[in-house]
């Protein structure tokens, strides 16, 4: 079948997204997508991060044996990217509350097929019912929103939108309960990011797929990564003290000649001395 379809997904790691399994596997034709691409933060006129091919698609094969209109907990998929492009966009956290979420405020952000344009939409309402496996709500959605993350006020992903239509209808998501999280974590563990990564001209440092921030001692060299994880270079003021970082990101010490002037940086701590 030579056709293309659209859906939505959410970053949970800089190189990992979660979506619905029916976005990547069609139960009517019993076929899996030949290729899947992610176009993060797309607008009708711009693809600011570009079009990125998904390296690997993972979902539970039991989903292939379900009926096309069946609401199933297997309707969950994980997308793995080659590069951690999510570093430029931000990620949703995974839930730390697995209790009943009825009455909890929830938001869906995705790309419903209002028309052919790629336009992100967001709507929020309370969870009407939590069955333990599914979250029910009356948040407005359309086709194309399938796979969108359902997240709480702490920006933690609590479900993945899988069914629903127009305003006033009872829509539903696969809840990220213990079973769903076990599947997601099993995939993440096999695709850990570690070490330095150059993303759109900026260096980031990862440990176990977690972007590091602040002071980092790597191979006996000190680096400083800002709150977004970006490696800093040149002069940087940290906690009221000035430091100089080489183009490689390494912290300078001792005498340093910078743009026509000499500076002395503490031999141990690297902070600039005056007086």
Automatic annotation (TrEMBL):
Top-level lineage group: Bacteria
Keywords carried by this UniProt record: Hydrolase, Protease, Repeat, Serine protease, Signal
UniProt repeat feature Cell wall-binding, residue ranges: 212-231, 232-251
Listed GO biological process terms: proteolysis
Secretion signal span: none
Transmembrane segments: none
Stored Gene3D superfamilies: Cholin Binding, Trypsin-like serine proteases
One Gene Ontology MF term: serine-type peptidase activity
Identification of the protein by name: Trypsin-like serine protease
Organism, as annotated: Streptococcus pneumoniae
């Amino acid at each position: 079948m030579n056709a293309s379809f659209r859906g939505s997904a959410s970053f949970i790691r800089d190189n990992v997204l979660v979506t619905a399994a029916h976005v990547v596997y069609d139960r009517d034709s019993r076929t899996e997508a030949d290729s899947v691409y992610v176009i993060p933060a797309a607008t009708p006129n711009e693809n600011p991060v570009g079009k990125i091919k998904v390296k690997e698609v993972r979902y539970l094969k039991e989903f292939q044996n379900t009926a096309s209109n069946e609401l199933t907990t297997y309707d969950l998929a994980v997308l793995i990217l080659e590069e951690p492009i999510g570093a430029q966009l931000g990620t949703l956290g995974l839930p730390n509350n697995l209790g009943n979420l009825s009455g909890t405020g929830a938001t869906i952000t995705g790309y419903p097929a209002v028309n052919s344009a790629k336009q992100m939409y967001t709507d929020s309402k309370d969870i009407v019912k939590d069955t333990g496996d599914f979250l029910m709500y009356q948040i407005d959605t359309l086709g194309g929103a399938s796979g969108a993350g359902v997240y709480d006020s702490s920006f933690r992903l609590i479900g993945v939108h899988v069914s629903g239509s127009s305003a006033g209808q009872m829509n539903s998501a696969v809840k990220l309960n213990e079973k769903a999280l076990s599947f997601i974590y099993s995939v993440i563990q096999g695709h850990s990011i570690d070490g330095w990564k150059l993303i759109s001209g900026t260096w980031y440092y990862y440990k176990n797929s977690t972007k590091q921030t602040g002071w980092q001692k790597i191979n006996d060299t000190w680096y400083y990564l800002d709150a977004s994880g970006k490696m800093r270079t040149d002069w940087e003021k940290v906690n009221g003290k000035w430091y100089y970082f080489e183009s490689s990101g390494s912290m300078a010490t001792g005498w340093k000649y910078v743009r026509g002037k000499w500076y002395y940086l503490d031999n141990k701590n690297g902070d600039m001395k005056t007086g």
